[in-house]
Structures are given as structure tokens and as C-alpha cells.
Amino acid sequence: MATSNSLTLSSATFAKLSPHPFLLANLQPSDPSTPSSRTNGRQPRQARPYSVNNSSLSHAHGSAVVRSGDTTVICGVRGETLLTSQIPNYRAPQADNIAIGDELRDYDLLVPNVELATGCAPNFLPGVPPTTLAQTLSTRLFSLLHSSKFLTAEDLRIYHDGAGTQGEGDTEEEGFGETTREVKAYWVLYIDVLFVSFDGNPFDVAWAAIIAALRDTKLPHAYWDVDRELVLCKRPTEKEPRPLSMRGLPVACTAAVFTARERQKKGSGQYWILVDPDRLEESLCNETVTMVVDNTEGETKVLTISKSGGTVVGPALMREFANVAATRWNEFRSALQ
Amino acid sequence: MADRRRINGPVGQTNPPIYDTPQEKRIAKRPGDNAVRKIFLKTGVTPSASGSAYLEIDDPFAIRPSGTNLKLTCTVHGPRALPRSAPFSPHIILSTHVKYAPFATRQRRGYLRDSSERDLGVHLETALRGAIIADRWPKSGVDIIVTIIEGDQNRDSPDYDRDEGWDMMNVLSGCITVASAAIADAGIDCVDTVAGGVAALAAQDEKSQPSIVLDPDVASYHKIFAACCVAYLPTRDEVTNVWFKGQLPGADAMLYNKMVERSLVACRNANRVLIQSLSETINPGQNVS
């Protein structure tokens, strides 16, 4: 710190001029009586609480606004119908329901997209193609949606009961007997994630918003109209729209590893694990760990681990981090209720 | 070629749900032709931007508690230095972006800006340019970004297909008000706070005579003949932008003037909300009424 009176910097100026020493000074205070904390006042393992608000959009079938600190995300889920005749290489699912492949993935029934260019932070301005971050986020969310098997294809199938529509006389369907239940169309879920405000940790909050929005999603009852060769839906007033069935509750938890630079002799080799990093911390940390866990059945199940950028986190730390993720899971579940 | 930087979904064409029975007509009773819907305005929703604001217009006939009609967020970034390659400019350069969220309207919107969004952007720019004291920031630029989270279209509107774009008027007036709040939040010097307002010539049902209404909720009218969106500086009594659309019957020459005057009333109303929200930002906790 500057000691002379002619050059005294406020902490905000110090943070802007030299962010790395600023964060280091906060985590490693020179005076041992002051507790070590991050620049945002949190403890290293302390995450920002989630707040969730459901069904605030009227045009989407399901929506959620999730806030975690200063990161605010809106997610809207919209269902549209896709005829099986429009799907190239379509193969009807077998009657015994043994998966011939992953329908959700094969027919591209989930379409998550992240929009960052809303001016949610100074470096995300519209008028340019999606940034690398927006593209990687979309792709990571897409693969997590599929790999977590959170949704089932059964919910998105629109069936046509051939036997039920037999009129007078002998139609061709007579020969098939009672097992003429065929899939005529699918629901395609467009999952759009919009960042209103961005302050670090985009993946966790975007995923939380997707989960909350999908839990809120109710698709109208759809059926195949033979005469018009169309998929028609029943009004919600006539038949209650049904919610999607979901498998478990995967929650993502991200931490960044902050290391003291080797140049500074005082604390070289020291590192801190900062759970739920904000924008300043993200810009200073190279190594990040993301773990997606599901605690629904009592024990922590790890769905995804991704780690990049450094060598600090080893197997032991990873195990420890799973416990942090488990507490984060509990936080999110209580925020959902 | 499809957009490679986004996830595009299936190759085949997808259709929004088609319902088998038409929506029953809503019986919308307006409190009166002069009634304006309630506006909620809050600044500082995006802390990392220089200025930001959020605006919501309440739907008086909402079935669900959350069924509001219009939701907008605006962020302002700047003033900041123009890139070195840009030519010299003696005043601030405004760039406005208006974008609908994909889930904002009945039809899903794409991610690329379409012509109506560009149109809104141009109108917004002219409305704001008159209010900002541009000479105070030579060689600098400011970005004003409005995201429409929910457009002013009612999901329960009976005429699903007939979309004549009247709701764009309300969207524009909301954009002007919210952008003005965000600019004030960013601390950019203005001569006054601009506010937007809409008046329309509309008929309640088939038989009734068209009358001029304020802040038309498109879904509750049988037909709208013309609409007018004005951006107005109340303390200076100046209009920075007028957008008029539709046809007026030729018999009454004063009708146009009347419509502009009525929309000024709507502007003053919006401005009152704007001023109150800004003074609440300055003195938090103190309830200014």
C-alpha cells in the first residue's frame, strides 16, 4: 500500500490498476488479525446464493429467471413440433421400447443456445457474431443436456393411435391390429438462455436456469389430425398440459484456482480455491474446475468433471471439491422450492 | 449455410403449436380511453454496465399474476473512446441496438436482427439524439442496447394470424423510456429525460365509432386504424421523434394533431414514472411520491 500522503489509492483504483496483487492482498492480509477473504467479501469456499423465479414469461412453455449474485440469467423453453416425415433417416422406435439409439440426440430435439451479446458486461456487445465464450457455453450445455439424460424421449413423442381412428369399412390399418401406435411427430425444445447481467460463473447459472425452466415446462396435449395431416394441440383450458418427467437434479459447481505468481517471493506456490468466481476473479485465474453432481438419491453422483488450465487440482482436491459441489446442490435445491 | 456458431436444431421444419379450437374472445374492459397501463421502472439491473434499466408494463387483464405485457432491459456502455481507426467526430456517436429475445413474441425470433428490429433501433436513436448533449464528448461513442424480453403481444389475443405490427409502437415507446432511464443512470448529460408515449385511433368492436385511446393494448381492440408514437421532452416541451403509422379518415383534418397531443399526455405519464424511479435511485429508502 502506498504510504505517502501524496499517493493514496482507494481500493477501487488499486483493484483496477493491479488486480492480481489486490486479490492476493485480500486473500493474504499482512495483518494476521484480519481474516482472509476475497475482494467481494466472500470466503474462498463461499458461493453466492441462488434465487429462482419461475414462469415469468407468457410466450414460452416454461421459463425461469435465476440470479446468483450479480449474474442474472433468463431461460425460456419453447416447444415446436417436428414431423417424423421431415426427419431424414428416421427409424421408428421399436415396440418393446429398447433404444435403437438416442432419439433426443439423433433427431436434435434439444436446441440450447446462449445469448451473451445483450450488453450484460462491457465486453459483450451486440452486432458481432457470438463470442467464443457464448459458443463454448452453448456446446457445453448441449452436451450436458444429452449426457446427463435429464429428459426422456418418451415425453417428446407425439403418438397417433391408428386403431382409434378406424371409421367404417376396411382401411389398411385393419391389418395391423391393435398395435398401430406410431410416432407421428416430436416436440423440439428450443431452450434459449439470455444473460441480463454477467458477473462471472456463466456456466453454473445458465445450467441452473435451464434446469429450473425445464422443471417449469408444460407442453400442451398434442395429437395427430388425420384429415388435415397436422399436429394439433388441445387448449390448456380443455386438457391440462403435462409437465416433463425429469431424471434427478444435476447441479453444476465451478471453482477457479488462484495462484500467487512466482515472481512474488512472499507467497509463491500458494493457491486458493475460489468457489463461484466473479468476473474479476475469472480474469485472474487460469485453472477452473467444473463438476456436475446429482445428490437426489442420497449419495453424490458425479455426472461431469471438467478441469482446464493448470496443475494444482489433483485427485485429492477433486474429492474434496465433490463435497463443496454437494453443498451447492443442497443450496440450489432449497432455492428451487 | 446455417449459422455455424449456434446450435441450430433439427434439419426439418418445426412448427409452433397449432390449437384445434380458436381462443375464446377476451372480454376486455378498458378502464377508459385515457387510462394508461401501469409502468414499473428500475435502474441498475446490470451492475457491470455504465447504466442500465428495466421496464415492465402491467397487463390489467392478466390471468396469471406474472402475465405482464412488455418487459424490456436496457444497458448503456460508455461514453468511451472511439477506436483509433474511426474518423474524428466532434460529438458523441450513439449506436443503438434493439433485439427481441427468441421467446419474446408469439413466433420464435431468430438470433440475427431482422428489419423490424433495425427499424426500432433507428427510431430509438433519433429519439435519444435530441436529448443527449452530444458536444460534451468529442471522439467518443456510447452503446445503447435494449433487449425485449417480452414484446407487447398478448398470448390470448383472438386473432392469432393477423399481426399488423401495432405492438411495435408500444415497444418503441417502452424502449425510449427505458433507454432514457439507463442513460441517466450512466450519468450522460441530457437536456431532459425523454419519454415515449403512444396514442391510437381504435375501435372497441365492430359497431363502435373509432376513438383516440392512450397506450393501446392491441389485443383488446377490434381494429386499430392508426397509431402514433412520440418521444417527448416534457420540461422543454419538445418532440424528438414522431412515428405515425396507419390511415386516418380524411374528413377531420385536426385528427392528426389530436393524436399527437394525446400521445404527449401518455409521454408525460411515462416521464412521471421515470422521474420518480430516478429520484428513488438517488435517495434510496426515501419514498418519493
UniProtKB/TrEMBL annotation, chain A:
InterPro entries reported in the protein's UniProt record: ExoRNase_PH_dom1 (IPR001247), ExoRNase_PH_dom2 (IPR015847), ExoRNase_PH_dom2_sf (IPR036345), Exosome_comp_Rrp42_subfam (IPR050590), PNPase/RNase_PH_dom_sf (IPR027408), Ribosomal_Su5_D2-typ_SF (IPR020568)
Q: Where in the cell is it found?
A: Cytoplasm; Nucleus, Nucleolus
Q: Where is the composition biased (Polar residues)?
A: 27-43
Q: Where is the Exoribonuclease phosphorolytic domain?
A: 46-220, 248-320
Q: Which domain of life is it from?
A: Eukaryota
Keywords of this entry: Cytoplasm, Exosome, Nucleus, RNA-binding, rRNA processing
Stretches the record annotates as Disordered = 25-64
Which GO biological process categories is it annotated with? exonucleolytic trimming to generate mature 3'-end of 5.8S rRNA from tricistronic rRNA transcript (SSU-rRNA, 5.8S rRNA, LSU-rRNA); nuclear mRNA surveillance; nuclear polyadenylation-dependent rRNA catabolic process; rRNA catabolic process; TRAMP-dependent tRNA surveillance pathway; U1 snRNA 3'-end processing; U4 snRNA 3'-end processing; U5 snRNA 3'-end processing
What are the GO cellular component annotations? cytoplasmic exosome (RNase complex); nuclear exosome (RNase complex); nucleolus
As for family, the record states: Belongs to the RNase PH family.
| Name recorded for this polypeptide | Ribosomal RNA-processing protein 43
Recorded source organism is: Daldinia eschscholtzii
Task: Name the lineage.
Answer: Eukaryota, Fungi, Dikarya, Ascomycota, Pezizomycotina
Automatic annotation (TrEMBL), chain B:
Keywords attached to this entry = Cytoplasm, Exosome, Nucleus, RNA-binding, rRNA processing
What organism is recorded for this protein?
A: Daldinia eschscholtzii
Do you know which Pfam families this protein is assigned to? RNase_PH
A molecular function (GO) held by this record is:
RNA binding
GO CC aspect terms:
cytoplasmic exosome (RNase complex); nuclear exosome (RNase complex); nucleolus
Region (Disordered), start-end ranges: 1-20
Q: What is this protein called?
A: 3'-5'-exoribonuclease
Q: Tell me the protein family, please.
A: Belongs to the RNase PH family.
Q: Which InterPro entries match?
A: ExoRNase_PH_dom1 (IPR001247), PNPase/RNase_PH_dom_sf (IPR027408), Ribosomal_Su5_D2-typ_SF (IPR020568), RNase_PH (IPR050080)
Gene Ontology biological process: nuclear mRNA surveillance; poly(A)-dependent snoRNA 3'-end processing; rRNA catabolic process; rRNA processing; U4 snRNA 3'-end processing
What gene name is given for the protein in this entry?
A: MTR3
Q: Where in the cell is it found?
A: Cytoplasm; Nucleus
